[in-house]
């Protein structure tokens, strides 16, 4: 999705909302938006924007509660979910940690995988000082086990569109595991793409999340689809 990380862009946060109830709120994050302020980036974040949206819409005095359940890397677009209550935050954290949330991504990568469908298992070690993760084929290096499944949806020119289902939630997992097999994500200079995207995004989109609602106890599937025109554009040979 188009990058827009200015405060003016966040004021229309309602247009990004996919799902909202008394317990959860989910948005379709733009590539370039910062999910939560940190030491490196202190600018207005997606968390700030949603808090302001809740405060105004529901006329709440003071600052609204909002719990960050998971993060997407800054250059990644797609579905990002937040908790509106402490109870929902605690229960959603448990669902994520126990791997009871099914995550589906779309990725445009360089080349065409030899295996159109495969399971990748690596051991990852993150270098926090450089904010980069390295992947190894065995656990002798003492890394964290990372697993994902991918399916090739389409191949055009020198790119492939993949559906990716990570089974674990390691830092930069999809990015580094696809790079490890020789198919880095388009625009991802950190993990082997040859050129940046014009808006500095990478072609990775969090497409859907499926889980049991933490309070209603109903199965919930949320989607943040990309438009077909955008997918076609990403698959074109623009280099």
What does this structure look like?
The protein has five helices and eleven strands. It has 239 residues and is of the alpha+beta class. The chain has a single domain, classed as Pseudouridine synthase. Strands 1, 2, 3, 4, 5, 6, 7, 8, 9, 10 and 11 form an eleven-stranded mixed beta sheet that branches. A hairpin with a 2-residue loop joins strand 8 and strand 9 (159-166). The longest helix has 12 residues, at 46-57.
Total domain modules:
1
Coarse structural class: alpha+beta
Spell out the helices and strands N to C.
Answer: HEEHEEHEEEEEHEEH
Q: Quote the beta fraction.
A: 25-35%
Identify the CATH architecture.
Answer: 2-Layer Sandwich
Total of helices = 5
Question: What descriptive keywords fit this protein?
Answer:
Pseudouridine synthase; single chain; 5 helices; 239 residues; 33% strand; alpha+beta; disordered N terminus; globular; 11-stranded mixed sheet
Short note summarizing the structure:
The chain is of the alpha+beta class and 239 residues long.
Secondary structure topology:
Blueprint: H1 7-10, E1 17-20, E2 24-29, H2 46-57, E3 67-68, E4 77-83, H3 86-97, E5 102-110, E6 117-127, E7 132-136, E8 144-156, E9 159-166, H4 173-180, E10 204-212, E11 219-223, H5 228-235
């Amino acid at each position: 999705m188009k990058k827009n990380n200015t405060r003016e862009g966040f004021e229309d946060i309602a247009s990004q909302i996919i799902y909202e109830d008394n317990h959860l709120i989910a948005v379709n994050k733009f590539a370039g938006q910062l999910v939560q302020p940190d030491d490196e980036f202190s600018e207005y974040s997606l968390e700030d924007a949603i808090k302001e949206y809740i405060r105004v819409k529901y006329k709440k005095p003071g600052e609204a509660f909002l719990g960050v359940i998971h993060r997407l890397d800054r250059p990644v677009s797609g579905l990002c979910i937040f908790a509106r209550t402490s109870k929902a935050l605690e229960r959603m954290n448990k669902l994520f940690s126990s791997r009871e949330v099914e995550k589906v991504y779309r990725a445009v990568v360089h080349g065409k995988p030899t295996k159109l469908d495969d399971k990748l298992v690596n051991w990852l070690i993150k270098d926090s000082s450089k904010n980069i993760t390295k992947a190894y084929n065995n656990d002798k290096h003492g890394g964290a086990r990372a697993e994902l499944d991918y399916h090739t949806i389409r191949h055009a020119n020198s790119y492939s569109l993949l559906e990716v289902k990570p089974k674990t939630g390691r830092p930069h997992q999809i990015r580094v595991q696809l790079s490890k097999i020789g198919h880095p994500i388009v625009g991802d200079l950190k993990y082997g793409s040859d050129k940046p995207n014009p808006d500095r995004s990478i072609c990775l989109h969090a497409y859907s999340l499926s889980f049991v609602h933490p309070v209603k106890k109903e199965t919930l599937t949320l989607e943040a689809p990309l438009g077909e025109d955008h997918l076609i554009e990403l698959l074109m040979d623009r280099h």
